[in-house]
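Lab meeting, item 3. Inverse folding demo.
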């Protein structure tokens, strides 16, 4: 992967979040498929990307925080849960998603 790999992934997350906010499911679904290519690479090589991902837990965009927290749950559980707990307080689709992610994580139902 190239040196801009994580930044490209972040850009896709932001773009997908905007599409979701605009209720543009066609665009959101298209971007989701692209994001999955990045997610697969990150999961296979988490040790390579881990430090850079941890820094993104403080990103200005909540969609980025949410996605990165999800990816880091298995290896940076405390940090990831803390971010998701804050996001879960939002009264939005993103907040709902964070609440559901936390619930499924605590029930041991998330699969990586």
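The presenter then showed the designed sequence:
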């Amino acid at each position: 992967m190239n040196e801009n790999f994580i930044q490209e992934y972040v850009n896709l997350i932001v773009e997908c979040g905007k599409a979701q906010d605009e209720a543009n499911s066609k665009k959101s679904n298209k971007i989701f498929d692209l994001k999955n290519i990045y997610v697969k690479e990150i999961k296979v090589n988490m040790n390579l990307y881990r430090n850079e991902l941890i820094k993104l837990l403080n990103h200005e965009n909540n969609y980025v925080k949410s996605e990165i927290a999800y990816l880091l749950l298995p290896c940076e559980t405390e940090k990831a849960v803390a971010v998701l707990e804050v996001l879960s307080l939002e009264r939005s689709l993103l907040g709902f998603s964070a609440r559901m992610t936390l619930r499924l994580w605590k029930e041991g139902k998330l699969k990586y």
